[in-house]
Design brief:
32% of the residues lie in helices and 22% in strands. It is built from eight helices and eight strands, in the order αβαβαβαβαβααββαβ. An eight-stranded mixed beta sheet has the order 3-2-1-4-5-8-6-7, sandwiched between helices. The two termini are 28 Å apart.
Length: 218
Amino acid sequence: MNPLDAPRPATAPTALAKTPLRADLQLIADMVAPGSRVLDIGCGEGALLEYLARERSVAARGMELSQKNVNASVARGLSVIQGDADSDLAEYPAGAFDYAILSLTLQATRDPRKVVEQMVRIGRHAIVSFPNFGHWRVRLQLLMNGRMPVTEALSEAWYESPNIHLCTLRDFIALCGDCGIEIEEALVLNGRAHRASLNSPHLANLFGEKAIFRLRKD
């Protein structure tokens, strides 16, 4: 079945109660134009999709690996199907969405480069966020303790974490360059989830705990 033909739930998301978004999700939502077509890849329980449907009137669709989270999203009145970003994005036609969003999931994919390339193929814009492995707390823990770091953004021990491809902000910028992808907008969040300056890429890589990029490829 074409993933765009997935059945829509009976419950309208606009009927759901308002809930505040996490700071990084709010910044992603602010990048999305009202009335656009959105695919949220790895949407979890659908908090961002629900907000975008309610506040931005977007045509919201989601893909999620966990069946439990798919069920929770559908219960919120969202159109979400079970799928794997590493294999299932290829089934969507080029330009099917205005925005393809991947929030804090890139590091858990088997082939991050392929996933990003598929995102800029199926979406006019791609929005990607990830924990920055170049953050100073991460560097300090590795330097002082010689062990994989555990921070607010990387909260699980190495043996419990789904993260298999951690990268720094500068690594991701280099990947975009290698793939011929244009960076339209880039934001970093500090440890208090506030926006930090990107005037210096080196300082952003040092002090940004999370990064958000809006991308496109013509």
